[in-house]
């Protein structure tokens, strides 16, 4: 009985919407724009967040980086002191390997931009990274073709190279198989032994796609290992059961000893960890999210006013009809649900159109930029929820007013 | 159906309540709420919407409005406690909602029992 009444009120509402197509379209446009604005912001923020978290995770959650500069800056940042710090050296890696108890693996890395060549194909300013063998056990990466260095190749400074996916495509176009071929890295011949799996664009700029990796002992032949421009650092991965804080404490002691610092002297190195980056990005994304919520919230509010307005007009237009329905025995809740469904339908349709537009946008964006932008399930649920709730909020007052009309007075209304 | 005359106190409180409820609506979009789970904004949104509906009922001097307001107040308190959202906003909400409930209950006998 109730279901039949509900079905009838839905059909009434649908009939009213179809009868005034232009009005329906204009009133749902407000909600469409509102949902489009707010969910677009959330979709972009979520995608950027996912990308950055992925990049940070590839650096390792349980990894501490020994560097010259800290990643975070306080208000009293004494940059002039940091300027005079020495850069981490490869020989310090050996000392750390000998003395650190809480480390599972560690490695040294330097990098510089160099020209890469294979026959007539050239990649200018490709990032060349020199890794010690252990760095491969610290950093997360996937190899699509070939293999990683052997320990003897790394220690002996063999001229072998692993290519990033984009670099491989640049040097070996037309799906040419690169493994075993020889390329020129900074003018020196290198044998390709592997290709990294495609990672896509990284917001932190640490995607392996645009890098080639050679053994450190080979890289130092054409890179200045003492220069800050080579960005040398030591990465230390904590042993299972050892927290980053414990590892940092131990590292501080060992590094101070290795560098011969006096007890009262300041540290002349920085210990960085990825959660410092994550915390900075968390607050940034929260601010962007709140700004998006305010902008989108206002858009939706305007859309809601539009629907409320159209519902008041709709009730006014159909007052006569409401009177007839009530005099024929229609209950208050039947009139209420009839108008409420109309408002929710309008709002929901607006929301669905807004979500479809965003889906289309993400589809187009995928082709334009090398980053995955996805309309997530949580954003779809949020968009639909907001649409329905705005429909109820904006439609309830006119609908309830209509349900409370006196049938005799309603019939008399012109 | 004779309309029950609405006291000025109820009018003023209903307007204040509607403004406070609508101001709570943007809470659904806050990143902190979104991070709690996919369905948390939906649950909070339903609570806010039903609170809005209850105040409309009170505005029309309906008893169901007061009853629904009290139920939604209880549901909101329990939900916020469950979600560990015990901030200043939560305590402020309890404070003004209890004042509203006391005033609504004072006028409840004069309210209409019909839908």
Can you characterise this structure?
The complex is a heterodimer of chains A (414) and B (115). Chain A is of the alpha+beta class. In chain A, 56% of the residues lie in helices and 16% in strands. Chain A has two domains: 2-55 and 279-412, no CATH class; 86-268, no CATH class. Chain A is built from 14 helices and ten strands. The mean pLDDT of chain A is 87. Chain B has one domain (8-23, 30-109). Chain B has five helices and no strands. Chain B has helices spanning 8-24, 31-34, 40-59, 63-82, 88-106. In chain B, helix 4 runs antiparallel to helix 5. The longest helix of chain B has 20 residues, at 40-59. The N and C termini of chain B lie close together (11 Å). Chains A and B meet through helix 2, helix 10 and helix 13 of A and helix 2 and helix 3 of B.
Which SSEs are present, and which pair or pack?
The complex is a heterodimer of chains A (414) and B (115).
Chain A: H1 2-19, H2 21-59, E1 63-67, H3 79-83, H4 90-99, E2 103-118, E3 121-131, H5 135-138, E4 143-146, H6 151-156, E5 160-163, H7 165-171, E6 182-185, E7 188-196, E8 211-215, H8 216-219, E9 233-238, H9 244-258, E10 270-273, H10 274-317, H11 319-327, H12 332-368, H13 377-403, H14 407-412
Helix pairs in contact in A: 1-12, 2-10, 2-12, 2-13, 4-9, 10-12, 10-13, 12-13
Chain B: H1 8-24, H2 31-34, H3 40-59, H4 63-82, H5 88-106
Helix pairs in contact in B: 1-3, 1-5, 3-4, 4-5
Total number of strands of chain B: 0
Q: Please state the average pLDDT score of chain B.
A: 89
N-to-C series of helices and strands of chain A:
HHEHHEEHEHEHEEEHEHEHHHHH
The biggest beta sheet of chain A is recorded as: 6 strands, mixed, barrel
Class computed from helices, strands and strand pairing of chain B:
mainly alpha
Oligomer: heterodimer
Compute the average pLDDT of chain A: 87
Helix content range of chain B: 55-70%
């Amino acid at each position: 009985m109730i279901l039949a009444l509900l079905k009838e009120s839905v059909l009434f509402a649908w009939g009213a919407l179809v009868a005034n197509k232009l009005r329906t379209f204009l009133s749902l446009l407000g909600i469409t724009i509102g949902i489009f604005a707010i969910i677009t912001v959330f979709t972009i923020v979520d995608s950027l967040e996912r990308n950055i978290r992925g990049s940070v995770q590839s650096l390792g959650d349980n990894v501490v980086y020994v560097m010259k500069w800290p990643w975070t800056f306080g208000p009293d940042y004494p940059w002039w002191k940091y300027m005079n710090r020495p850069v981490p050296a490869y020989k310090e890696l050996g000392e750390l390997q000998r003395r650190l108890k809480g480390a599972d693996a560690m490695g040294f890395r330097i990098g510089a931009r160099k020209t890469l060549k294979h026959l007539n194909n050239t990649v200018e300013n490709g990032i060349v990274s020199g890794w010690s063998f252990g760095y491969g056990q610290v950093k997360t990466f996937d190899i699509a073709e070939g293999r990683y260095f052997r320990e003897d190749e790394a220690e002996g400074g063999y001229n072998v190279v692993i290519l990033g996916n984009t670099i491989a495509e640049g040097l070996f176009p037309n799906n040419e198989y690169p493994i075993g071929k020889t390329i020129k890295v900074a003018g020196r011949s290198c044998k390709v032994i592997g290709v990294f799996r495609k990672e896509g664009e990284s917001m932190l700029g640490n995607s392996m796609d645009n890098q080639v990796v050679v053994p450190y002992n080979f890289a130092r032949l054409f890179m200045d290992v003492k220069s800050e421009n080579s960005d040398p650092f030591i990465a230390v991965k904590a042993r299972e059961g050892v927290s980053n804080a414990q590892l940092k404490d131990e590292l501080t002691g060992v590094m101070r000893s290795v560098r011969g610092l006096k007890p009262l002297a300041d540290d002349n190195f920085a210990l960085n960890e990825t959660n410092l980056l994550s915390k900075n990005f968390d607050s940034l994304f929260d601010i962007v999210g709140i700004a998006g919520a305010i902008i989108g919230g206002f858009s939706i509010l305007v859309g809601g006013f539009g629907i409320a307005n159209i519902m008041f007009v709709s009730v006014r237009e159909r007052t006569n009809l409401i009177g007839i329905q009530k005099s024929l025995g229609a209950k208050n809740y039947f009139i209420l649900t009839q108008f409420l469904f109309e408002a929710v339908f309008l709002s929901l349709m607006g929301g669905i159109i807004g979500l479809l537009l965003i889906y289309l946008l993400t589809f187009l964006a995928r082709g334009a930029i090398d980053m995955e932008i996805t309309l997530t399930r949580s954003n779809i649920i949020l968009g639909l929820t907001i649409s329905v709730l705005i429909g109820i909020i904006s439609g309830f007052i006119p609908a309830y007013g209509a349900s409370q009309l006196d049938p005799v007075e309603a019939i008399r209304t012109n | 159906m004779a309309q029950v005359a609405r006291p000025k106190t109820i009018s003023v409180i209903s307007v204040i309540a509607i403004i406070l409820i609508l101001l709570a609506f943007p809470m659904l979009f806050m990143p902190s709420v979104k991070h709690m789970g996919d369905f948390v904004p939906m649950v909070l949104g339903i609570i806010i919407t039903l609170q809005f509906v209850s105040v409309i009922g009170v505005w029309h001097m309906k008893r169901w409005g007061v009853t629904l307001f009290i139920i939604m107040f209880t549901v909101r308190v329990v939900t916020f406690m469950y979600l560990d959202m015990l901030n200043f906003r939560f305590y402020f909400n309890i404070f003004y909602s209890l004042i509203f409930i006391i005033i609504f209950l004072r006028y409840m006998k004069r309210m209409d029992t019909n839908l």
